[in-house]
Design a protein that fits this description.
Layout: E1 21-24, E2 27-30, E3 33-34, H1 35-41, H2 44-53, H3 59-72, H4 77-84, H5 92-107, H6 115-140, H7 154-163, H8 169-182, H9 189-199, H10 204-215, H11 223-233, H12 240-249, H13 267-282, H14 287-303, H15 309-319, H16 327-348
Antiparallel strand pairs: 1-2, 2-3
Helix pairs in contact: 1-8, 2-16, 3-6, 5-6, 5-10, 6-7, 6-16, 7-8, 8-16, 9-10, 9-16, 10-16, 11-15, 13-15
The chain binds coenzyme A.
Length: 373
């Protein structure tokens, strides 16, 4: 195989087997359950349980799982103190990267592939993630971090810890649905990074941090924030066409459009569009939704590209009054469920992931002494 023969970026390469999630004929399933069904009927906690164990929980299994999560949600005061020492110059993702690493110093059990220690650590990471993201936001804004309320779901708790007041049910449920929709996505770049790290038998935290770092980029989880910037720069519905013309002249990528796997549309985007429409109808500001819809039409017409998961996420988060710098941390807060499912799957049947590169550099050269260069 030659570099540049169509496998650039490993496009189309089947790198592993997995039973966690599938994209077949444009349909996304988690453990065989369609994401539309899950988004409509499930909760994020139930979805995480499904991703990790392969089955939907019974009522008592879900109760136990939620109890374990509630017991693990608080942050160690040392982690808060560490965060308080950070200057405000970093982005929330930079804080989060360090924050997740810091959690491991206290929480880490046996590490590596031990299933019991792994389950405890996994619940600890899933449970503390929203607490950490909310604390980061508040500390960066000179506010005290708020302790989690064990009565609330992860989604509701996140909104509560962000603002200090119990969120309306509709906001919690919409965020819960957003978390379900982002929870896993086959062998996307960050999940692949998680599996590569896990394949060295690095511990769960290290594999999650590898994934988190990979999610950061604008071609992956960083796109929704880019969509917000773009929607802000567009001057209303009438400004869509001139803005797009300018972006194309500048040869910019239109954030939130295109996908490596979906060529006939991303099913998550269709669902998020409906959520955005619903939130717009409850708001006195239709602009975010209306501009998004017009841009979707214009991009389809001029570039034949369809929106991906990040496109309507941006307007949904904006209607939920979530600041743009938290869009990627929230993506991570959800996707960590999928990362952990894949890391567990990798540990359960591991072989070191170590591909080859086709060498295209110089052939063997004779060393040149400093005086002759
Ligand atoms: N805006 C403008 N052009 C785009 C584009 C976009 N959003 N997405 C793809 N293209 C174009 C590329 O410029 C390229 O054109 P070229 O062959 O003339 O150079 C062509 O489509 C293929 O792009 P490539 O990056 O090789 O395809 P990919 O399958 O690797 O792309 C993404 C997948 C997601 C990286 C890409 O669509 C993208 O950059 N989208 C914007 C970022 C984004 O929304 N990321 C979130 C993904 S969920």
């Amino acid at each position: 195989m030659k570099a540049g023969d169509g496998r650039r970026g490993l496009e189309g390469v089947v790198a592993t087997t997995s039973a966690v999630s599938s994209i077949i004929d444009g349909t996304l399933t988690y453990r065989g359950y369609g994401i539309d069904d899950l988004a409509q009927h499930s909760t994020f906690e139930e979805t995480a349980y499904l991703l990790w164990t392969g089955e939907l929980p019974t009522a008592s299994a879900l109760h136990t799982f939620r109890t374990e999560i509630a017991a693990a949600e608080s942050l160690d005061p040392e982690v808060i103190r560490l965060l308080q020492g950070f200057p405000n110059s970093g982005t929330p993702m930079e804080w989060l990267r360090t924050g997740i690493s810091a959690l491991s110093i206290r929480d880490r059990g046996a590490g590596g592939a031990d299933p019991d220690a792994g389950r405890r650590e996994a619940i600890g990471i899933l449970a503390r993630f929203p607490t950490l993201v909310a604390a980061i936001h508040r500390l960066r804004n000179g506010q005290e971090a708020i302790s989690p309320d064990p009565e609330l779901s992860l989604a509701a708790n996140f909104l509560y810890m962000l603002r200090g007041e119990r969120p309306p049910k509709v906001s919690s449920r919409i965020l819960d649905e957003v978390l379900i929709l982002h929870a896993d996505h086959e062998l996307n770049a960050s999940t692949f990074a998680a599996r590569v790290a896990a394949s060295t038998l690095a511990d769960l935290y290290s594999a999650v941090v590898a994934a988190l770092c990979t999610l950061t980029g604008p071609l992956h989880g960083g796109a929704a924030e880019g969509v917000h910037r773009m929607l802000t720069a567009i001057d209303g519905v009438g400004g869509v066409t001139p803005w797009l013309q300018g972006a194309l002249e500048r040869r910019e990528r239109v954030m939130g459009f295109g996908h490596r796997v979906y060529k006939n549309g991303d099913p998550r985007a269709r669902r998020l569009k409906r959520l955005s429409e619903r939130l717009a109808s409850m708001s006195d500001d239709q602009r975010w939704y209306d501009v998004s819809v017009r841009l979707e039409g214009e991009v389809a017409r001029t570039l034949s590209l369809l929106p991906n998961v990040d496109f309507y996420s941006a307007s949904v988060y904006t209607y939920l009054d979530i600041p743009p710098q938290l869009f990627t941390p929230i993506f991570a807060m959800s996707r960590v469920a999928g990362w952990i499912a894949h890391i567990m799957e990798q540990y359960a049947d591991n072989r070191l992931i170590r591909p080859r590169a086709e060498y295209v550099g110089h052939t063997y050269r004779t060393y040149i002494g400093m005086e002759n260069r």
